[in-house]
Each structure stands twice: as structure tokens, then as C-alpha cells.
Specification:
single chain, alpha/beta, globular, Rossmann fold, 5-stranded parallel β-sheet, 8 helices
Length: 264
């Protein structure tokens, strides 16, 4: 009996000891799990960002207004149903296409006399320049002659032949307007060479005679020379590759003189 009591007591002690150990073990695990959680760190105070200084908007520089070209005029209606007749200078206007609503009748070397007999450059019919032009019955005729006549011995013969041309045109085209264009000056170098009588002094003489003829015949004289010459009354260097036939810039001045005559 005494042995049973002792055994019972030993068993009880063992149970108590086991329970104590189990409690200690659980406490350790619990501590271990708790320590594995990250510690809460202090929230840093944000450093305020500097407000960027706005870039100033540049003030736009106004573009310069282009100076209008005194000869610029896009309205070419004044040339409707018109024709140009003359020498190689007329071919320059045709080549540069500065007046596209007009027709051109020209030939190198053409004169106020040969206009009735020589055919248009490139003509397949052989019809004389004058006949080809008047067959179309234009409202306006722009005549340009004199360059190839500068070498004639007598300027009066040139004027007489020009008079015949105007009279014939007035008879064949009684309702048409006739514009006689002045000879244009040549460069100083070309004038000094005096080839075939081409000098600026001779050109001035012919133009004065043409101006008087136009008053006599009641037709319009167009002073193209004043539109293209410099202060000395000659063609500036660089205005014509050969000193005679105008480049495109000076042909524009020529056309400007025609427009002014038509507006007046």
C-alpha cells in the first residue's frame, strides 16, 4: 500500500514537471514569432521640392513686312487679246513668259520694212509676220522696232517706214490700240564698240523721232528706255548678258512700263 502511494506521488510530480516544460517551450516559440515581425520605423519628414522657376516665354520678333515691288502686278488682264510685234527683244519677253495672255510675232533681225515680207521665227507656213498678226484681229498691238535700223544711213528713212507700218495697221485694224515702244539703251561697253551703229546717242535720237511720230499718228508712245536706264541714261552693267538683250529682272521693268501706259 505504501509503495502505491509513493508511485502515485512520483507520477504526479512527473506530470507537473512536464507541464512546466511545455509551458516554457510555448513561451519561447511565441517570443520567436513575435521577434520576426519588422519593427515600425519612424516616418521620415519629406523634404519639400523646390518650385521650378518658370522659363519666360520669349517675345516673338515680328517679321519685317516685305517692301512691295513697284513692278509687281499679277493682274495681266490689260494684255488680253493683244499681240507683240518686233525684233529679237520681243523674243526675250516671250522666253521669260512675263505676259502669258498675249501673242508674240518676232524674228531676229526684223525691221519695220521686213515685217511685211519675212515670216515668223519657226513658221511652217511662211506667212509674213505682219499678215500673221493682223489675221487674228487683236485689240492691242505693241510694236518694237529700231534696234536693227540703227545702222541705217538716214534715220528719216526709219521714221518713214515706221509711219507706213502704223498707217497700214490703222487701216487693217481700225478699232485696235497701237503702242509704239521706245528703243532700250545698251550698256556703256556696247555703245563704245559702235557695232552696226548701236550707240546710246543714236538710240536717244531715234526715240525722240519716234515720240514725235506717235503724236503725229495719234498712237501711244511707251518710254521703256526710262524704265530700264540708270542715272546716266544707259543700261546698267549686268542688266543684259550681251549689253543689249535684257535679263529677266529688266524685262520685268519693261513690262511695268507697259502696264503703266495701259493704266493711263
Amino acid at each position: 500500500m505504501k509503495k502505491r502511494i509513493i508511485a502515485f506521488l512520483l507520477a504526479a510530480v512527473s506530470l507537473v514537471s512536464l507541464a512546466a516544460c511545455q509551458s516554457t517551450s510555448d513561451a519561447t516559440v511565441s517570443t520567436s514569432v513575435s521577434s520576426s515581425q519588422p519593427e515600425a520605423s519612424a516616418t521620415p519628414t519629406p523634404t519639400p521640392e523646390a518650385t521650378p522657376t518658370p522659363t519666360p516665354t520669349p517675345t516673338p520678333t515680328p517679321e519685317a513686312t516685305p517692301t512691295p515691288d513697284a513692278n509687281a502686278n499679277t493682274d495681266d488682264s490689260c494684255f488680253d487679246n493683244s499681240a507683240f510685234l518686233g525684233n529679237s527683244l520681243i523674243s526675250d519677253l516671250y522666253t521669260y513668259a512675263l505676259v502669258t495672255n498675249s501673242d508674240y510675232y518676232f524674228k531676229n533681225g526684223l525691221t519695220v520694212r521686213s515685217v511685211f515680207t519675212e515670216a515668223q521665227a519657226g513658221s511652217e507656213t511662211g506667212t509674213p509676220v505682219y499678215d500673221a498678226a493682223v489675221s487674228k484681229h487683236y485689240d492691242k498691238y505693241f510694236l518694237m522696232f529700231g534696234l536693227n535700223e540703227l545702222g541705217w544711213s538716214y534715220p528719216e528713212v526709219f521714221i518713214d517706214d515706221y509711219r507706213t507700218l502704223i498707217q497700214t495697221l490703222q487701216k487693217d485694224e481700225p478699232g485696235a490700240e497701237i503702242y509704239v515702244q521706245s528703243l532700250t539703251p545698251v550698256s556703256a561697253k556696247r555703245s563704245k564698240e559702235n557695232l552696226y551703229g548701236v550707240t546710246n546717242d543714236r538710240i536717244v535720237e531715234y526715240n525722240d523721232m519716234l515720240r514725235d511720230l506717235c503724236k503725229e499718228m495719234n498712237v501711244t508712245f511707251v518710254d521703256v528706255a526710262s524704265a530700264v536706264c540708270n542715272d546716266q541714261g544707259i543700261l546698267p552693267d549686268g542688266a543684259a548678258p550681251d549689253g543689249v538683250h535684257l535679263n529677266i529682272d529688266y524685262c520685268k521693268k519693261w513690262v511695268g512700263a507697259l502696264r503703266s501706259a495701259l493704266e493711263n
